[in-house]
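MODEL INPUT / OUTPUT PAIR
PAIR INDEX: 1
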Amino acid sequence: MSLGRTPAAATRLTLCLIAVPWADLSAQTLAPHQKNGHYLAFRGRPTILVGSGEHYGAVLNPDFDPKAYLDTVARDGLNLTRLFVGTYYERPGAFGIRNNTLAPAAGRALTPWVRSDEPGAGDGGNKFALSRWNDAYFERLQAFVSEAGKRDIVVEVVLFSSYYGDGWPVSPLNAANNVDGIGDVAKERANTLDNGNLLAAQERVVRKIVGSLRDADNIYYEIQNEPWSDHEEAAGFVNGSLLPEDLSRYSVWKNRVDLAAPVSLAWQERIATVVVDEERTLGVGHLIAQNYCSHRYPIRDIDPHVGIMNFHYAWPEAATLNLGRGRVISFDETGFANPMSKTSAPETDAVYRRQAWEFLMAGGGIFSMLDYSFTVGHEDGTFVNEAPGGGGPALRRQLRVLKEFLETFEIPALRPRQDAVIAAPGAFARAIGTDDALGVYLSGDGATKLTLDLAPGVWRFEWIDVKTGEAEASGTLRHAGGPTDIESPTYDRDVALRIARAH
């Protein structure tokens, strides 16, 4: 297929948007783009979200300086952060993460509920009173989202999470940690419809959060973080502990648990419905994301309320396998590629840089890096951490290069263009483009003689250093049509090409 042809599938995909609940969102509120549902529109502009953010505790950890953090994200040219609301947080030292922003100091967690006068909560503070809202929390939540909006940063608001090992013993929703007798269930039942009096409390806090953020145009909601993980732990699997040869089997097993667990899926559907019903009452609407699985999977059934498909530790196939569903596809969390490595190490940066390029070049619309260099006292993202992931100033600069590279294209017209790559000896190639422009990402080393199938015409090309954003080489190609070779400059690990029809 030549660049001059537009596949009928692209037209069919846009039609998927017509009947969905978010079709009437404000022109300013974050929403799928009307011309291409794989991408977003935000404040009247087509948008690809690229973030490298702290470990989700910016609001619930009162010792963290949110303005300094948001200033760093904006200065680094990124536009996304992810936020847990306080229904789940961690103890210091969980997962071996030093200075974890999601693990406030003992008794310091700021949640939607006030603490009572009764001591004995699992986090070292007083127990919570689920019948009373914490005004200080909601003021901080609203201020954080507002300050993010001033910087054109979108906030993914995560309502619930699986509880892992230490999460349920400190959760306010555990009956051991509140004075209301709510949540006297095992953690495996907490996020199901079979959870006793906990469901009413969950629905109540969802409605309160939705109401408090009703006027924000820069948010979307995720129902639950990693809904498979409680079941995964019960079977003896621990995230990050598997050998490389186990990854394929692990991915399939996790998908089987998540997608074949009707009690979990029914609860997620219920929470999504609560969000939609409350927003309908308020006269507003925001996108809802659902977290399906790690790595990749061709999702069979999608809740009609869901507009963003979230994957963790995603492979490019997570995007390509699901492009036909007409939703935005998100690489929602990175990690465990180089366990416990220094975040400033170039080796680690290279792993996550490649993940970002390959996923977004495969048609993904969101990339969310989990950046462990943000800690209390290092809201400028300069902490050299030991954690199961990466992050840091150098990698954030490289992610900005990717974001700005994609923004040189007409985003609503973008589509994966693997058909345009005939050969890339010695390199892995990912291509995306429009009728008049093509982007190619090469992962290899040395130099690559790239063979492309281009339409007739005059084409201008430029090779981009993906670490710095600087042009490595450029030129003009007068082409009669069909296969043509373009030699890359010598590169280390990866390089990108942008080639566009001259006008």
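PAIR INDEX: 2
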Amino acid sequence: MNKPFLDKNFLLHAELAQELYHVHAAKMPIIDYHCHLSPADIAADRKFKTITEAWLEGDHYKWRAMRANGINEKYITGNASDEEKFQKWAETVPKTLRNPLYHWTHLELQRYFDIETILNADTASAIYKQANEKLQTEALSCRGILKKMNVKVVCTTDDPIDDLAYHRQLATDFPEVKILPTFRPDKAYIFHDVKAYLAYVNSLSEAADLSITSFHTLVEALEKRADYFNEIGCKLSDHGLNYIPDVSPDDAKATEIFEALLMGHRPDEEEAELLQKTILVSLGKIYHKLGWTQQLHLGAIRNNNDRMKRDLGPDTGFDSIGDFSQAAGLADYLNTLNDSDQLAQTILYNLNPADNELMATMAGNYNDGTSIGKMQYGAAWWFLDQKDGMEKQINALSNMGLLSLFVGMLTDSRSLLSFPRHEYFRRILCNLLAEDVKNGEIPDDKPLLAKMVEDISYNNAKNYFNF
């Protein structure tokens, strides 16, 4: 007899898995310690006019699927009406069978809108109407969604020049959920467009109220902004990099290269890598001083489609997994900071699944007994945050490290409708543990397993980040 699709025991294939999830994992609150939600929307308690606004606005996962299905860009990022865009997404959904989008779509329809109907071209109109009506209720405003999904902490992703006005507002008028900034200084060390870089340096100077005239003052300005973020409650930094360069940091050489850059000279590849690595090490020391956790997202090759980048701009769904060499540069970066005892808590994320074991073992090189799980092999990320990718990440971490200390899942999303990804991960975790018990590979010790599940779902992150 076939199992029903997406019933209460979805992905839970044994009685123990069901007990671990329903009794233990499901009740745990959510800490979404890495996402791209809009603090402005939460501060305004935005109510989405349509499910298209809530679901398709900025969601490049769905955009990629629609493009693959031959949908014209007019109905994706163009000027078609919200209802037309939703209809085209609905026409695409049946084609996403075995893609995580099929699971996420129907999980989100159930959890937010109590809609159990399968979405397709024929059901789209009724679902669109029903979802839009619910979106006008207080329960599905931005703040209502966070409370409905039992979210306790959200860490947004913010540039050092951001004034964090919305975070300051939210600390006062929305204390039910912590909305905290994350320090993302990528623009401070990407030099390929000299004109854009110098404009950014000027903005950073203004934000830090400090004239940036040298490498030293660049680092000083970044530290001033980090101090400001820290005052607003920031506890994490984040970096999105192809790879960390395998070159030794050198303040003297970085100073020379930066001075030339300020004069309009574009650094060559070797110079750019040295300057970037030296800035990263300087930032790493700042994070350690502040007691932050640094996150390193490594391995994406971004904006591969030049024509579409010209038409739509960056980060519009034309990125993929890269095959960069990761180990040597990353080891040198971590070792440089560790050697002076200035290595902050660190989470490593990889996009290439070939690097799973590399990252899991790299994290283990720099645990020093100063804190529990100081070095983390992070959750399956981006193209890997689906069933197969999550299972492989869990297995690599289990084999090479201590799964029980893992800080768990995050959404990495721009959509407030993405929180069921935490549920998805928790179901997969509970099912894997139950399979191990079934196979006699771990003991049938329910208190031990229950604690592990609750810790990975919530407690570890709460303690690790000191929320």
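PAIR 2 NOTE: The radius of gyration is 23 Å.
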